[in-house]
Amino acid sequence: MQSDNSGPIVKIRDVQPDCVNFVLSECDLALANSVRRSIMAEVPTLAIDIVEIEENSTVLADEFISHRLGLIPLQSDDVDSLLYNRDCSCGDYCELCSVVLTLHAKCTSEGIQTVYARDLLVEPNHSNLKIGQPILNDDANKGSVICKIKKHQELKVKCIAKKGISKEHAKWSPVAAVGFEYDPWNKLKHTDYWYEEDADKEWPKSDYCAYEEPPNPDEKFDYTAKPNNFYFDVETVGTINPNEVILRGIRELRNKVAGVIYSLDEIVARNANEGNAENIGGAGFGTVYGGATQYGGTAYGGTAYGGGTQYGGTAYGTQYGGTAYGNNSAGNDDYNPTTGWD
Amino acid sequence: MVAPKERLGFNTLKTTKRFQNPPKDETAFPLLAEAIYPHIHSFNALTEGPGGGLLNLAVKDIGKKTVYDSTEHRSANKLKIWIDSVQLMKPAVGSFDKTSLDRKTYPAECRERMSSYRGKLMLKVCWSVNDGPEMSEVRDAGYLPIMLKSNRCHLQTMSPEELVKCREESDELGGYFVVNGLEKLVRMLIVQRRNHPMAIVRPSFENRGHAYTKYGIQIRCVRPDQTSQTNVVHYLKDGNLTFRFSWRKNEYLVPVMMIMKALAETNDREIFDGIVGSDSSDSFLTDRLELLLRSYKSYGLHSQQETLAYLGDKFRVVFGVADDMSDVEVGKEVLRRIVLVHLDSNEDKFRMLLFMIRKLYTLVANDCCADNPDSSQHQEILLGGFLYGMILKEKMDEYLASITQQVNTDIDRGTGINFSERKYMTRLFSKVNENIGQKLQYFLSTGNLVSQSGLDLQQVSGYTVVADKINFYRFLSQFRMVHRGSFFAQLKTTTVRKLLPESWGFLCPVHTPDGSPCGLLNHLSHKCKVATEDSDVSKVGEALSLLGIVPKHGFAAGPNVCCVQLDGKVVGWCTHEQGRIVADTLRYWKVERTHGLPLDLEIGYVPPSTKGQYPGLYLFGGRARMMRPVKYLPLAKEDIVGPFEQVYLNVAVRPSEIESNIHSHVEFSPTNILSILANLTPFSDFNQSPRNMYQCQMGKQTMGTPGVALAHRSDNKLYRLQTGQTPIVKAKLYDQYGMDNFPNGTNAVVAVISYTGYDMDDAMIINKSADERGFGYGMVYKVEKIDLGMNRRRGDPITQHFGFGSDEWPEEWKGKLDADGLPMIGTKVEEGDPIVAYFDDTVGKTKIKTYHSSEPGYIEEVKLLGDNNDEELQMLTIKYRIIRDTQIGDKYSSRHGQKGVCSRKWPTVDMPFSETGIQPDVIINPHAFPSRMTIGMFVESLAGKAGALHGIAQDSTPWQFSEDDTPADFFGEQLLKAGYNYHGNEPMYSGATGEELRADIYMGVVYYQRLRHMVNDKFQVRSTGPVNSLTMQPVKGRKRSGGIRVGEMERDALIGHGSAFLLQDRLLNCSDYTQTSICRSCGSLLNPQTSVPRIGQKSSIRCRSCATKIESETLLKDVDESEIWEDGQSNRFIGGADTTTIGIPFVLKYLDSELAAMGIRMRYNVSPK
Q: In chain B, which residues have their Cβ closer than 8 Å to the Cβ of A107?
């Protein structure tokens, strides 16, 4: 397990239209798990977020149909071309931040008619982009069932699909499950594979055992060893290609790290401007919140809360006796840059 | 031996198809219909069966009433009046409705209109004047509530398809009534077994009189119309016996000898022999009998006629018989109505009485033991239909009595009476209250029994319950519920609540609630039936004589010979050896179905024993008995056994334990002893038994699917789970009872792990993503009835009309209401929003009704309800749909009594996950298991996991596995085949760090139920709010946004902690802290008052008693004008300025005022001065 400083290595074992199986090696467990987490929760996709119901005479309640619509996977390959609704300058929604789908189903014949995801039509604003079309992965190309209607029942809705991430709601998840495994032989003894009589009989061998050397019983246990190979098995819901999901997951992760670097840099730059650049190290956080500029002294001290005017002196002084809350600027119990928490 | 396991299916397609096209012939779930059989058939028995049904038997028993048209009987005309027959119609629209083409009324309409499902009760009243020709008239006795699916219900023979057309469930069960829109159910009660004399030792018997002892023989005799009369023979200290009965709630005691002499023309010798038999050497017995016979001599009544006349004379007034009856006739009437009423002939009664006396003496001599009234052996079930018939009988009796009463009133008033004139009779009928149906409706809607006689029952209320439709489990189990009687609920002893081995197979040992009704409220085992018809016992006598039973034997008596009784009638005697052979042969014959014996004949052979139960051969074929099927080994056929005989039968539980010459029967299945619900608990044989009890309770509180015809119901509150699933792990009976029509929970991936700390103490963590995908998503339907005519008196003109008026009203109402003033479907309403607009003529304004609930709801339905009089619309119901997605604090449970509260919705990425990326929907703490020992839940988890992996349904019927064939192995193999660990463990990874967890985690699929206890219905918060106007303390109650009391014990705890500040905060500051003024000088809290402010000055607080009133202007000489102050009544004062403000609890002021009212002054010392 020698690192040759070349960085993480990805070895793809298998790719299918909706899943990918790969090995991530030469990296830390923390990084591997971060990739897993950002794939699951941070990759933006498109999902129906607002449903305007014009007519619903089905047996299902409005909010229940809306919920079902929300969970329908929508094509999100080009979701990057959309803005987040919250970042968009429009008031409600617009074509920069949303995709509009419509559904109109009415049963005119005897018997039961099923409304499928394929009946959702994308309004043609984004026609040239791969975005918003319902995913129809089944053999009949019908997609998910939305509801069933009988004669004279009707469902007419306008759906506004928005960009979002799964951290907010599960409907924006690009993946169904992310398989994640390391150390198939349990050489690191992270877990103990409890058994009653015979571990070999009771525990199935991992598929990944073939990729690693079986443990040598004579070898001494290396307690410094760290996991090195991480076996991923990513299964998507079809909204984004599996390789894209991983790439975007890594991108999101990178952006987050970049965000941290950016704000650190910003602080450094600002401190340099003010001429106390040596303050970066140990007191790093002190500078972010502290420093005389942002919160201290001027903003709160004295005027708004402090000082003898509003809370100090008069108001509290009489009721609780002069001392309890003090007369000075400590009237705000915010962080005081000079004394710390008082 | 490993038995091959049956495989269950999911039958999804079959269920769907059946749902889309309900069967056109019959229900797919005959077991369901069987479960409520006793209810429906006991109701049917009222109008069908021998003698034209129970009601017609009842009117025969009531007999004829006689009344004279003048107090002078010799010259008076005599009117005999009686009810000849009773008829009950099917529910139909009334005659006032001229427009309806289909005149039938269906139950769904009654539910939605909040009316009652009832049919006309018709009485054919006959009378004859001076014993002349019979006249008759059919009288309408009001509308009687009809049981659904009974023979008077339109739904009785409908196929599922037709039922659906009638807006019912496709497998509607019936068995209940619809009263004022509520579904009401007469619950089954346990009563003493009929027609069998029971030996009883009861200390309270001593309270009857000074010589009374605790010994008695009690028999509950049932007439053919199912009304009953209890007779007791008491043993007195001196060896004498008295006969006790109660009539119209009064008790009467008669010497037994008098009854016997009245029953038959007999002599002392005959009585002596009939009791002693051949045991004349038994001096205990002969001494007492001598005394019994001697002491009666004092009455000087020798012949039967004399005795009857004596009895008749004493009871003439009590029985209120016709004046023209002779004393002897009255005496006979007493015997007919009171003494051993299950027997027709006096001879039979006489012999039964002899038997009872001998049994009593044997009990006193301690040669036999007392019978246990708490054991199922001596119990039967009082069925709803029979109780209904009993009440009806009494009401009809009262009706006849009220007619005679009316005649007497007419005599008193001097109204002209002419019985032979039709006009007078019609007037007579119209003057009495004929509405019997209304009285029965009152009974059903309140459960209160209004009765002069008490109907031989021990309680007056609690006979009916609302058939809750919380979910189908709850609904169904209510029909199988048997109550011991509310009298027993107050008993301090727990003996009545004990689970006795006698109830094996009849009452479920698991399914009883914990808490106060424990053991009193039982449920019938799922194979237990209750007889609703008399078995045909006409051929039993023949069979007995074939076996050599002598019908009558001069010297046969006592426990040394075997007395053969059929339904409480002594039919013969034989030796004990012969008795056993007779019993065995009878059983063989009846199972063989030869000799005309009914299969459900109960053959209770009690063998001779040392101080055991009094021996004999007791045959029963009556109604209301509990019965159950077991396999009869000699013929390998089904036998129906009852609780009386079962005690003396050897029934093997499994075929493997049969021993030859010991067992005569074997159970068809060990699960037969469990109730329907207890049977549905998966692998309940692996659980600690109280947990199975808890599951039976929680299954009934689950938010599930109450029904599918929800659109045609108007229940006040209805819970519904939107995402119900069929369980992967289910018992065979689950499918047979069609539970998939009403799913009750969701299959969840459950990991048993202590992961975040949020799963402490029975809390459970729900995966946030699972919640977002709809796990446990449910809703509540609430119905509000709006009746504009509610405050309008009958006959008043309608002044309020639905809809908007032409006056001006706020425009924003239009956002929620449609042009007709009614809310639009799908509108979201919040507290204070308008739900309906109406125009009020009296003020000429449009008004609204508002939504009263802090929880927002959606309008689901608006139903306009017409009344019966074709008037303008005045009533409507609005159904709200209230969303109940999972909140933190909502209650969930598995099917093993493992309930827990959702403590967090944990983000998916942070959840632990398996190598395949599976994350649990639910995390529960491993500490939930060691003390509770719900191994069944582990097994279910294992089975569910294997089932999910292989796509198969798993059978969880209890007692399918054994020590050699464990479920752990069975499902372990399946798991291994699917590539999983044999024991259901999986290595898991921390979601937060990605590190493999130190231990492998037990993860599987468990069916989870969402319980109806939700925080949204329970949370109680208050900072400030309404206060009691008298004490100024916060009010109580969640509804009124009151506070939670910090009571004495809480106070003690706070004191113990020394948390004085908190104590002051709770008890004073957050309670009734008040600032008030006090006079420093006189120390009064009540006297200071606010002065009237003068111009340019502030008002001040002055003490009225310390001030000097200015009576005349002369006092004002040296006084500065500014010193003078005025009260509100223009009185002027000087002084009293020495006041200050203090903070006190307001109740102190209240106390002071109360004391002042009693003339006690409170004085407070104020310091510093």
A: none
